[in-house]
Design brief:
This protein is α+β, with helices and mostly antiparallel strands. The chain folds into 3 domains: about 250 residues, no CATH class; about 80 residues, Helix Hairpins (Orthogonal Bundle); about 150 residues, Histidine kinase-like ATPase, C-terminal domain (Heat Shock Protein 90), CATH 3.30.565.10. Helix content is about 65%, strand content about 15%. The protein binds adenosine-5'-diphosphate.
Amino acid sequence: MLQIAHTIHSDHDLGLVLLAGLLCAFGSWVVSRLYRHALDRPRAQAMSWYFLTAMTAGVTIWCTHFIAILAYQLDAPASFHLSLTFASLIIAILGSTLGIVVAGTSGGGARMVLGGVIFGLAISAMHYTGMVAYRVQGIITWDMVYLGLSVVFATTLSVAALYFACRGGRFNVLKMTGMLTAAILALHFTGMAAFQVTPLAVHGHYDNPAEYTLIALTVAGTALIIVLAALFSHFVETRTRNESIEELRKARDAAESASRAKSEFMSVLSHELRTPLTIVIGYAAFMSKLKNHTASKIGPDEMITAAHFDSIGDQAELYGQRIKSASGHLLTIINDILDYTSMELNNLALNKTPFSARSLLEEVADQFQGMAREKGTVLHVQSADLTLTADRGRSLQILINLLGNALKFSKATEIHLRGRPAPGGFCFEVEDNGAGIAPQNLARIFDAFTQIEDAEDRAEGGTGLGLAICKKLALGHGGDITVDSTLGQGTRFTVLFPSPVAETQAPALPAAA
Ligand code: ADP
């Protein structure tokens, strides 16, 4: 140990030793990260990561060695045999590749140890080939103990490095980094303690040329670029993978929420269909027993009079009306579902014709006057007398839905129906001063099968398809529908049609006779 410390201290430029050490530690950290990343990949993807790891390891080992050699200061001139120096780089890369692939594909155990040993031998082979390439004017002797020790250090520390990486757990990357750095540096400086030179025929003091520092800095810079490039590709891959995981997670959440919405819809739907159906079946049953029921109330000696017929007729009429209204409700629900599903299949055929915006709003308001009076709501219609071109029936459907919702859900005292030109077309507004919609619900009210109320609160019925249908119709026209709402103050729905608008023509007067 003392001999090794002495070699470092007395035979080396400590600045360059520090540079070699830092490069070695950083490179080892990148190698450890890449190796850990490769271990976590499926086998097919892992191979390319093992190669990148090995390439980075080879470059790190070789550059550390080369800078440390440049830091070596002998009292004799030295030079490098070019092809052997290059061969040492190839040995570092190929040896590391073999060691890393053997250890990485082993899943631990004996092959992992074998991979570590190969890796350690690769570092040693690189170092000693590099030393053979190092030509110095002097008599060289090798201390076999230190030489053997250096190989033992390199192999055991490499096995430890790969063991820590494959064992996983906390700080595994840092532990591998530490072991790898120790393996490379221990091999090098123990190897240098084994390398003894007696300078030949040199007169006076000899210093390493100043260019050595420059070469060392260039090698360090190049190594840094290669190592950083490897690190960068690792970050890019990790980021892309995280993004795809995030996308998959979003798609899964969307699929789950769609399936949840469909299940909720099925439960709402069965409830919605059952209510009017129960009414229909109940009253139909009453009607089928009406004759017997009335007969049972007539005494044996009692005469059947016109009053009896009137009573049967009145009851039949009442039951008939209830059956009619429940069937009408049932039909609306079924129509909504059919309408929505056909739009889902992109079967929205629009019949665009010019029509008066004001007369459309008046027609909607007229339809709902009775319901509005019952609820104590005042309807106001305000519209420019303009003609727009759109599907009138579908526009009516949108406004009926919006006004129907405002009356059903908002408990408003006033509802305004407006029509006005807007940038790029014409827009209708349905604004109430009722309960409003909570901000967290606003984003989802246009989703199909979405109802905001709790099940008990659904006295007004509906399938949660109304606004989804409105949205599809507005989009089908190339327009849109938006909502602004303040809880406790009211809601405004705005429907935009990108339609050319024109002054409504006054009806032509009959020609004078
Ligand atoms: P449905 O077809 O069941 O009526 P919609 O899709 O038309 O469903 O509406 C979805 C939800 O939006 C309703 O359950 C209701 O809670 C809410 N909503 C729609 N219009 C208003 C409004 N003007 N004020 C308050 N809530 C509203």
